[in-house]
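Fold these two proteins, one after the other.
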Amino acid sequence: MLGAMKNKTLLITFLTAASFAVGCDKEKTTAQQLDTVKTETKQAALDMKEYTFAQKDEFVKAMQAQLAALDKDLDALSAKIDKSSDAIKAEAKPKLQALRDQAAKLNTQLADAQNATESTWDSVKTGTKTAYESVEKGFNDTRQWVSDKIAP
C-alpha cells in the first residue's frame, strides 16, 4: 500500500512538474525546460518498474495520464506549428504524424497492459514502457526542432 502511494505521489509530482516545465516560463530557456522534463520523465520511467501485477490498474491509469499529458502537449506544439510558415508546416507534418502514430501504439500497449495476465505482466509492462519512452523521445526531439526553427 505504501508503495502504491509512493508511485501515485511520484506520478503527480512528475505531471505537475512537467506541466510547469512545458508552460510559459520566460525565465528558463527551452533547453532548460527540456532538461527538466527529461529528468522527470526518466524518474517516472524508473518508477514504472516498481508496479506489480496487483497494481496493474494503477499502472494503466498512470500511463493513461502520461499519454493524455503528452497528447495535450502535442496539440499545443501542433498549434504553434500551424502559426508558422508553410515551409515549416510542410517539414513538421511528417514529424507530427510520426508522433501521433507512436501515441496510437502506446494506446494499444495500454490496452495490452490492461488485459495482461500475471504470466505476461512483466513483458507487457516492458513493452508499454518502451512505447512510452519512444513517444517521449520523439516528442522532445520534435519540440527541440520546433524551438530551433520557430522563434519564441
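Now the second one:
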Amino acid sequence: MLDRFNREITYLRISVTDRCNLRCIYCMPEEGMQFKQHEDILRYEQIEQIVKEAVQLGIYKIRLTGGEPLVKKDIEFLVGKLAKIEGIKELCLTTNGVFLEQKARVLKQAGLTSINISLDTLQPEKFRQITRVGNLADVLKGIDAAIREGFKIKINMVVLKGINENEIDDIKRFCQEKNIRSQLINQFNLKEDKNDQYIFDRPPKCGNCNRIRLLSDGVLKPCLHSEFECKIDMNHIRESLIKAILAKPERGQSCNSRKMFEIGG
C-alpha cells in the first residue's frame, strides 16, 4: 500500500515489550521507569492477527523489537506463528544479544531469518559504561551462536559523540572477520527535530522510509519522529492499519509523547 506521498509501505516493526535487561545511556534512564502492565501488552495471538492483515496490505517484512524482545517468555512461539503466515518474506529481530546464546537455535528452528545485534564497543569497560549493567562477553557469545545457526546478521553500532567514535573501524573490522554486516546508526533525540543530514546508515532518510510501527500496547505509530499515533481496533484491524499508513507524514519532526525504549527504534 502507498502512503499519501507515494512511498510503498512494506515494513512493520513490532515492539513486543517495553522492558529491557540493559539500561543503555541513549535509550533508557537508569531508574524510575514506569513499564506497562502485562494486561496492557498485546498477546501473541493478537500480534498474529495484525500481521495477517498487514500482509494483505502489502507488508512483507516484519521486525520484532522491544525494549529487548528476548526478555519475553517463549518469544520463539510468536516467531513460529509469524513464520507460517504466507506472504512474509523477511522475519527479523533486533536484540542486545545478551540472551542470544541461549535462544539462537530455537529462534532459527521457529523460522526467524535475520538478526540485528546491538554492539557499540568492543571494550568491556566502555560496554559497561554505555549499558550501565551489561557484560560484553555475553553479547560476543550471542553473536557467535547466531553465526553458527546460519542467520543473516547485522551489527548495529550507535555512534556516540565523544564515547565510541574512535571505534568505528574496529567494529567494521570485527564484522569483516566474522563475515557479517555492520550498520552505523546516527544518535538522535526524539524530542529534537528530525535531521536527515548525516553520514551514517540509519535512521533512514524520510523520503525512503517504508515502515510503520506497532507498539507493545497496541498503538500504531506511522513515524518515529511524530506525535501521531492510533490505537489499533482489533475488530477493524485493516482499517486501523490503513489509517496509520495514510497518516504517515512526509517528513518526521519530533516526538515528546514516547521514549525510545517504548518504540523499539
